[in-house]
Write a structure and sequence with these properties.
The complex is a heterodimer of chains A (467) and B (199). Helix content of chain A is 33%, strand content 17%. With 467 residues, chain A is an alpha/beta fold. Chain A has 3 domains: 5-160, Aconitase, domain 3 (2-Layer Sandwich), CATH 3.30.499.10; 164-248 and 258-283, Aconitase, Domain 2 (3-Layer(aba) Sandwich); 287-466, Aconitase, domain 3 (2-Layer Sandwich), CATH 3.30.499.10. In chain A, the strands form 5 sheets. Chain A has a 5-stranded parallel sheet. Chain A has a 5-stranded parallel sheet with strand order 17-16-15-18-19. Chain A is globular and about 55 Å long. By secondary structure, chain B is an alpha/beta fold. Chain B has helices at residues 25-28, 48-53, 84-92, 104-112, 122-134, 162-170, 176-180, 185-192, 194-197, and strands at residues 10-18, 69-72, 96-99, 117-119, 139-143, 148-151, 154-157. The chains are: A alpha/beta (467), B alpha/beta (199). The interface between A and B is large, with 85 and 65 residues.
Chain lengths: 467, 199
């Protein structure tokens, strides 16, 4: 029978079937960061256990670190304490840490693929829900909690039930000014924020196949926002070329053998899925969220829907969203005023995102009342962007050019919304309070759309600026 | 703790309803509380911002203090993988959750802490939330083994996927020891992988 990538990777990593009926699944790559690990290391110490496969474990600092002044000790004593725990634990257990001095530091989901650590056919786990990002290289990658981090450290395994598989096909071709972010927001809007519960998503179809790896990373990143714990794209020539020459990718003839194996894990023609969903790529326009979860979105030319347009059980959430956002049903999303613009995050903090943002930034200046931040996803992204002069373009247009980190995506450092500020954000979550202010408001959109909003001071169709 | 202490066949206690769908883990515990390097203080901050913004929030109400069964809507615990969310609920006093559906990482984190999450129909959830609000002092029983919730004379069907159910009922949810039992099979599995043995 024709098999899927999920079938093949799952089988290859099955250690045994547990008495509970779950699979004891081997984890090929364990990525860790400062925020969800101190308790796991503490539990490991209490159990007097070592890290089972230290050579398959890599760490970085991203969630809590400042992106303006990174001089140690950090101004925030809690951030400093968390960083110290990370340094101490990594040293004590003999694990590599990509810190600022390494030149390889960055958001864990940016650096994994960038360093060639994340490879096709692997299982990848990390104490962060956006681990689904790494599925873009053709891996089965999912987020876990801290006690599960302990399990992976101690045993290199997790007790897991195999998910069902839904193929999400994006047919046709995208219009100009429509980006990967718009595609994944459209997918989540169509399938719902809980539509993926119990499923892994295989993204396929001509639009996905034509995408660059960085675009695929954006797509897979937000699988979790659609309820799917993991999402992947089958490895192909683009995957292989992306990995060639990366520091942790195999070298020379070993690379060719690796590439052959990578392609062999792809889903076979005629493989069966538990479900198939389809979207027409040509029908997707730039998407903007208007509500309090990533499924509450509209095309930029559309109006904010009325609660009555939703099924009965969803209506209270719609009403809560309108009240929180200060929007009226029937109001066009275009023209909604913003106070803050944020380009960055594991969703859209890569070089291609910054290039797309700079393309728009060239054409204007940040509106007077708008605070605008560009936060590269990693030190290497920052370096490459600076080599192209993107930092100069952004700063000339009135954007702050920051150092790499998670920053205003979740507001664990100083980069936060204040009060009811409205943010145009290239990040992944518009949950109430997500960007650091309990009453702050978030509009999710592509990096190009964020810059368009920064320049005009309100939600704008970027296609009008790019014309 | 003896092995028997880990078994979660059933949980009995008073209920607390939190209505609404898609309540994410940022809402349960805002990110600023993730800056602590232990979970100890999490219980104090469960639903902190939601409580401040809404004096009527169930976690503010005197009638629900001491409750141990949380009754929620659809997709509860979606979003961030932060275990701080179930830790906060557990340290507040929650021992079991009954809901329409759950975010998967949240669900898994709950299992790791021995907190059963059972799914019931939309209709039954709505009934249960109203019934608990009407009689907050009345205890209910969440029966993991029989997959039902009993409240007064009503019995509601409530399911847990087989693997998690076996872990909870059998007391094997604290999984490190179970996973370690595989012994050398872990390395043997790794050695067969092309990316481990070398291409």
């Amino acid at each position: 029978m024709a098999r899927t990538l999920l079938d093949k990777v799952w089988e290859a990593h099955t250690v045994r079937i547990l008495p509970s009926g779950q699979t004891q699944l081997l984890i090929g790559l364990h990525l860790i960061h400062e925020v969800t690990t101190p308790q796991a290391f503490q539990m490991l110490k209490e159990l007097k256990l070592k890290v089972r496969m230290p050579e398959r474990t890599f760490g970085t600092l991203d969630h809590i670190i400042p992106t303006a002044d990174q001089t140690r000790p950090y101004a925030d004593p809690e951030a400093e304490e968390m960083a110290q725990h990370m340094y101490r634990n990594m040293k004590e257990f003999g694990l590599p840490l990509f810190d600022m001095a390494s030149g390889k530091q960055g958001i864990v989901h940016v650096i994994g693929p960038e360093l060639g650590l994340s490879q096709p056919g692997m299982t990848i786990a990390c104490g962060d829900s956006h681990t689904s990002t790494h599925g873009a290289v053709g891996a089965i990658a999912f987020g876990i909690g801290t006690t599960q981090v302990r399990d992976v450290l101690a045993t290199q395994c997790l007790a897991m039930a195999k998910p069902k598989l839904r193929q999400v096909r994006v047919e046709g071709a995208l219009a100009k000014g429509v980006y990967a972010k718009d595609v994944i927001l459209a997918i989540i809007n169509q399938l719902g924020v809980k539509g993926g519960v119990g499923y892994a998503y295989e993204y396929a179809g001509p639009v996905i196949e034509r995408m660059t790896m960085e675009e695929r990373l954006t797509i897979c990143n937000m699988s979790i926002e659609g309820g799917a714990r993991c999402g992947y794209v089958n490895p192909d020539a683009a995957t292989v070329e992306y990995l060639r020459g990366r520091p942790y990718a195999p070298k020379d003839t070993a690379f060719d053998r690796a590439a052959a194996w990578w392609k062999s894990v792809a889903t076979e023609p005629d493989a069966k899925f538990d479900d198939v969903a389809r979207l027409d790529g040509a029908a997707i326009e730039p998407v903007v969220t208007w509500g309090i979860n990533p499924g509450m979105s509209v095309g930029v030319s559309q109006k904010i829907p009325a609660p009555e347009s939703a099924p009965e059980p969803e209506r209270p959430t719609y009403r809560e969203a309108l009240a929180h956002m200060g929007f009226q049903a029937g109001q066009p999303i275009k023209g909604a005023k913003i106070d803050v613009a944020f380009v960055g995050s594991c969703t859209n903090g890569r070089l291609s995102d910054l290039r797309a943002a700079a393309e728009v930034a060239k054409r204007g200046k940040v509106a007077k009342h708008v605070r605008a931040l560009i936060v590269p996803g990693s030190q290497q992204v920052a370096k490459a962007a600076e080599a192209e002069g993107l930092d100069q373009i952004f700063q000339a247009a009135g954007f702050q050019w920051r150092k790499a980190g998670c920053s205003m995506c979740l507001g664990m450092n100083d980069d936060k919304l204040q009060g009811r500020e409205m943010s145009a954000s290239s990040s992944n979550r518009n949950f109430i309070g997500r960007q650091g202010s309990p009453t702050g408001r978030t509009l999710l959109m592509s990096p190009a759309m964020v810059v368009a909003a920064a320049i005009t001071g309100a939600v704008t169709d970027v296609r009008e600026i790019l014309k | 703790m003896s092995a028997a202490d880990f078994k979660r066949r059933q949980v009995s206690g008073r209920g607390i309803p939190v209505t609404g769908n898609d309540i994410d883990t940022d809402r349960i515990i805002p990110a600023r509380f993730l800056k602590a390097v232990t979970f100890e203080s999490m219980g104090e901050h469960a639903f902190e911002d939601a409580k401040k913004q809404n004096p009527e929030h169930p976690f503010n109400q005197k009638a629900y203090q001491g409750a141990s069964v949380l009754v929620v809507g659809q997709n509860f615990g979606c979003g961030s993988s932060r275990e701080h969310a179930p830790q906060a609920l557990m340290r507040w006093g929650i021992r079991a959750i009954v809901g329409g559906s759950f975010g998967e990482i949240f669900f898994g984190n709950c299992v790791m802490l021995g907190i059963p999450c059972l799914r019931a129909s939309q209709e039954d959830i709505e009934w249960l939330q109203k019934a608990v609000a009407k009689s907050p002092q009345q205890p209910m029983t969440v029966d993991v083994e029989k997959q039902e919730v009993r409240f007064g004379d009503r019995v509601i069907k409530a399911t847990v996927p087989e693997g998690a159910r076996n872990q909870l009922v059998g007391g094997t949810w604290d999984s490190t020891a179970v996973l370690l039992e595989a012994g050398a099979a872990i390395e043997a599995t790794a050695r067969k992988l092309p990316y481990v043995k070398g291409y």
